[in-house]
Every structure is written in C-alpha cells, then in structure tokens.
Amino acid sequence: MMPPEQESSIAAGNCPANIMLSNWTETVSVHAEPPVSSINTTPSSQDRLPDQQQSNPSSFSILLECLRPVTLKFEDVAYSISLSTKGTCCSPNGTKSTRSVLNGVSGICRPGELLAMLGPSGSGKTTLLTALAGRLPGKISGNITYNGLPFSSSMKRKTGFVAQDDVLYPHLTVIETLTYSALLRLPKKLTREEKIEQAEMVIKELGLTRCRNNIVGGPLLRGISGGERKRVSIGQEMLVNPCLLLLDEPTSGLDSTTAQRIVATIKGLARGGRTVITTIHQPSSRLYRMFDKVVVLSDGCPIYSGQAGRVMEYFGSIGYVPGFNFMNPADFLLDLANGIIPDTREDDQLEVHSKVDHLEDQNSVKQSLISSYKKNLYPALQAEIRRNFQDPALPASSGASSLRNSEDQWTTTWWQQFKVVLGRGLRERKHESFSGLRIFQVMSVSILSGLLWWHSDISHIQDQVGLLFFFSIFWGFFPLFNAIFTFPQERPMLIKERSSGMYRLSSYYFARIAGDLPMELILPTIFVTVTYWMGGLKPSLITFILTLLIILFNVLVSQGLGLALGAILMEVKQATTLASVTMLVFLLAGGYYIQHIPQFIAWLKYISFSHYCYKLLVAVQYSANEVYECELGMHCRVMDFPAIKYLGPDNKWWDVAALSMMLVGYRIVAYMALRMGQPH
Ligand SMILES: Nc1ncnc2c1ncn2[C@@H]1O[C@H](COP(=O)(O)OP(=O)(O)OP(=O)(O)O)[C@@H](O)[C@H]1O
Question: Which atom of ligand 1 sits closest to the CA of residue 130?
C-alpha cells in the first residue's frame, strides 16, 4: 500500500483539480475558464482506470478523474404539486387544486461543467435539482436523460447529492463519519484499509484535518462549524467519485470566503471530468465567475439557460441592461427573475423599491422574459439537446448498457453492510444506550418495587400475583416507548442513505434491531434480578431463570410493536398516543384488574402480549397443586385464586406460540411499513 501522500500526489498528476483541492487551507484562486465541454476526460478514464482498478485495486482513488462521465440533458421538465385543503364543518369536502412548480425547464450539463441554478426563493431550484437527482416523488413530465438513458439504479450509485440541510450523525467524529461512508459506499474489491485510506484522503483534500477528531454535533450538541459540516457532506459524496454531483445551496449561511472555498472545491471536482450542478442563492461576482453554465428560474419558468459568460450579452440583446457597469451578474439576474428592471440611475434606489410594489409590472416583466427565452434561446437549446451525436465524453452505447448491467448489484455485500451499520449504530448511540438517566430510571424502579414487595409471601398471594403482573406491564411499556422513536428519528438519514443506494433496507433493519438488543436486554435482567429476590418470589434458580427469560421475551415482543408503530406512523407524537392507548387496553384486559369482562370484549386479552407474559409468569411461579393459606388455618389451591383462575387452562406452549407469532409478526409489519415508505 502506498503512503497516502504518495498516492495523493500521483492522483493529482492525473487530475489538475486535485492540485487546487489539496490547497484548501491556502488561498484559493479559481477563475472562470472557458466552457469545458471540450475537456475530454474519456480516453484516460476509459482506457486506463478500469484496468488499473481491476489489476491493482489499491491504485483506485477518488482523486482520479471520474470513471464514467455523464452528460445530463433535461428538456421541458414540468412538475406540479396537488394542494388540498382540509374540510371544515361548513365545507366538509375541502378543496383540491394543483400548483405548477416547474414549467418547461431545459438545459444541458456536460462532464467538466459546473452549472448553477439561480432564482428567487421558491422559484423551484431545489425541486429541479431533486428531479435531476432522480429523487423527486410523483410524476415529472418532460425528458431527463443521463448519457441518453433514463435514471437507473447504477446511475443512482454514481450520483452524489448534497442536500441543503446536512444530515449527519451528531455523535460521530468527522473521521468516523467519512470512514463509515467509505466502508458502505466504496466497492467490495477495495480492502477495509484502502477504504479507510480514501476517507483520510478526503479529509486532507477538504481541509478537515484540524477537526478530524471533533464530533459533528447537531442542534442540541455543539460540534464542528457550518462550513465544516458542509464539507463533511460534500466529502461523503466525493468518496464515491461521483460522475454526477448535485448540491443544494452548498454555500447558504456561510461567510463569503468559506463560500468561495466551497465553490472552488466543487469547481475542482467538475474539472476532474464530473458533471456538477448546484443551486445557489446569492452568489458574489467572484463566485459567479466560476460557473460554466447557469439556469435562471422565475416562478418555475426558465428565463435563461446557457453559458454563464453570455448572460449579459443575451439580456442586453433583448433590452435589459444593468444599472451600472460593475454590477454583479447574479444580482442582475435575480432582479430580473423577480420581475424588477434594474434602474439605470445608480443613486435612485427608491425608484427600484417603489417598483417592488407594482406586482402587475413585475408580472409583465417576467412574462416578457419568459417569452423572450422561448423565442430566442429555447429553439437552439432544444436542437442541441435533441442532437443525437456521440458525445466524445460519453462511453459508447454498449458501454452505457454494460454500465447498467454490471453495476446494478450493490457495492458491498449484505454482511458487510450489516456489520458497518451495526458498528456505526453502536458508536452513535452508545451515549444513549448507556445513559445514566436510563440506568437510574430502571434501578430506582427496581429497588422501589423490591422494597414495596419486600419478602412477600405466598400467604399474600394477591401481592405476589400483583408483582408478576407489574413485571409484565412495566416491561411492556418501557421497551415499547423506547422503540417507537427508532425509525421516526432515523428517517432523514435512512432516506438520504437509501437514496444513494448505500445499503439494502434489510441489512439496515437487522443491524438496527441487533444494535438495540444489548441494552434492551441488560436493563430488564438487572431489574428482574433485583426485584425477584427482594420481592420474595419462589427461591428457586430455575424459576428465577424462567421468569427472566419470559420477561426478556416480552421485552422483544413489546419492542417489535414499538418499531411497527413508529415505522407505520413515522411520527413520534401520533405513535406514542397510539401506544399509550394500546398499552392501556392491554393493562385492563390483562386479567389482573378485571376478572369478569363481558364476553363480547373478552377477546381483547388474546391480542395482549402482557396477558400471555403474565400467564406464563404465574405458570412458572406456582405448581398445579400448590396451596396457600386463604383464611386462618384454611388452605386453598393457588389455581383457584380468582386472578389466576381467570387466566384459563394452563397450556404454556400456546402462550409461547402466541408470543412467538407476535415477536416475528410485529417485526415483519415494521419492515413492510419501512419498505413502503422508502425511495426505491
Ligand atoms: N411537496 C411540496 N408541498 C408544497 N409545496 C411545495 C412542495 N414542493 C415544492 N413546493 C413549493 O414549490 C415552490 C418551489 O420550491 P423549491 O424548494 O424548489 O424552491 P427554491 O427555489 O429551492 O427555494 P429556496 O431558494 O427558498 O430553497 C415553493 O413555493 C414551495 O413551497
């Protein structure tokens, strides 16, 4: 294995971008360059890299040029959302309407190009970017092709998508975050060490060395800075050496120098033969100069799509000129997209503001810009999109289909995915699993109940049975409410990672369940050990072990129900409300409080796992012929005690079978609910 420095310098030799990227901490100077559609990265990537990779996997580096350049073309993209208002008492049916978010947007972005989408807030930039990333739900009309093909699962794994909000695990450090991504996303032909090396390399490339061991942090936990978070998100996508990289507002909330550095970084990635598209709010003129192409949107309609350097010329040709010579082109474009014509008199800003109020004027400016686009730009753009030439940067069409066939499998095996997600989950949640608060909660309840039932005796059978019922209910509630949070909390991460094709849902699901097991099982074990012996239950080791096993079984079933409710509703408030109603029903129908439930509702106990758990606890605690002192000097059979008699005939295996069915059934339901809510 080569030392990282050596590898880095070799890679940099192949890709000029890397020279610039590795200088993150130094002053970044990137100037607008001529459109790079002429940059032909294909021969090198096509002829050399795949071979290199096959013969010597260690030479694979994310710093090399993109392996399969992508030309992205989109034509007449339109998207509408349906808006429905809820009914009221006066108009119970509510109303339904649709709203157009994108309307006839077209463009081309070739390998090596950086395309920026500009437009006012709400103009549809994010929606278009999400559509281009193949992640927009619902029906999109128009045509979006990647090397002439529709979006495919192999394309998904070659696409990097950096969302506006960074979805990262707060308790992992920067290096851990990138290492786990590398382990999950890099191909199986690389060894673990090589993958870790790639993560290290990204850290260096993005200038994250200083904060590599800092935790990422989140809203309630101070971690790395906003710019560093953004770079970690970009780094996660860089790891897969994406041929198509899409970024949503990568500079929002950052100071101008940091923004400049981020854009310089993505410009560098484009120079490595990637197709890079970004939305951006208010770029400075320095940033604007780095763009090769721009698409300007106004209320979802395009007013410009083409070379960034020709914007002024185009708008000048249709009669719109900036107020003064040194105006930032981005400001000029945003004014136009808002329907505001920049005033030619520099000092008269009041005039501009007064125009803001003239909605009609603005709308007519927008309409005129949209029609000018349709008349002057669209025909040539459409012809260019439809031109069926063999792009020199594209692999031959056979290459495109082999791309589809050979890469449709996952980059890592099921088992690797399981192990990495499990390890990551244990690390991320160790503070939560072993939180002092949780341990205190369980310990205090166990000691308190041990004291309340202190050395209870069979002559006080009512109390003893009460303790067994308490076991079944407490260890029904506690795991249920813990499990409810699992999937709603993880949802953003799950959507992000599944959208990038990082792992199978099943490997994630089993890793998540397995990761929670240690703590889910350790706490009840401590609880039962303390309370069983303090509470004076049967002093037999076998009975104690059986009691413990029944409670652990109950915990797993109840955890399954919590997972299922969380996965179905995906909303913690609704899920906890439903869970508390369910547990209340189980508590009442369990057989301890009411022994004369009317027949028509008595079936409720059969769906209650607490009922089966309670029944089993009683069955192992008392033998069939055991007696207790029911009155002074009088002995009665335990099995005739009303709260026990009500439980019905003692057939333990039926109860075990019912609990087993619930154990598996709830988990299947949770999995199916997750699958249905997932991007495919
Ligand atoms: N699922 C949705 N439900 C309701 N409205 C939506 C939905 N998706 C998009 N919109 C609306 O479509 C419009 C475009 O949204 P989009 O997020 O694409 O704009 P944007 O240009 O990226 O804005 P910003 O710069 O503020 O992020 C907005 O008015 C938004 O409210």
Answer: 18
Cα–Cα dist 16/494, whole Å: 35
Q: Is the CB of residue 83 less than 8 Å from the CB of residue 99?
A: yes
Q: How far is the CA of 300 from the centre of ligand 1 (A)?
A: 9
How many helical (H) and strand (E) elements, i.e. helices and strands, does the chain have?
29, 11
Tell me the β-bridge partners of 73: 108, 145
Cα separation, 359 vs 381, in Å, equals 30
Q: Is 639's pLDDT higher than 90?
A: no
Which sign does the torsion angle of CA 53, 59, 62, 63 carry?
Answer: negative
* 379, burial (CB in 10 Å: exposed 0-12, middle 13-18, buried 19+): exposed
Q: What are the extents of the domains in the chain?
A: 72-79+96-169+239-340+366-386, 414-677
Residue of 84, 118, 123, 333 to mutate, ligand 1, most atoms within 8 A of C-beta: 123
Rounded Cα distance, 325 and 327, in Å: 6
Global pTM reads: 0.75
Q: Which residue type, as a one-letter code, is found at position 332? A: F
The 8-class DSSP code of residue 173 comes to B
Looking at domain 72-79+96-169+239-340+366-386, its CATH superfamily turns out to be P-loop containing nucleotide triphosphate hydrolases (3.40.50.300)
> What length is written for the chain?
680
| DSSP-derived pairing of the beta strands 293-298 and 95-109 | unpaired
Contact indicator for 120, 338 with CB cutoff of 8 Å: yes
Report the nearest-CA residue for atom 12 of ligand 1. Answer: 101
Q: Which residues pair with 296 in a beta bridge?
A: 118, 304
The closest of 256, 628, 278, 260 to 460, measured between CA atoms, is 628
* Nearest atom in ligand 1 to 101's CA: 12
Minimum-distance ligand 1 atom for the alpha carbon of 129: 18
Ranked by mean pLDDT, the top range of 2-6, 85-89, 292-296, 386-390 is 292-296
pLDDT digits (tens, 9 = 90+) for 32-46: 333 333 333 333 333
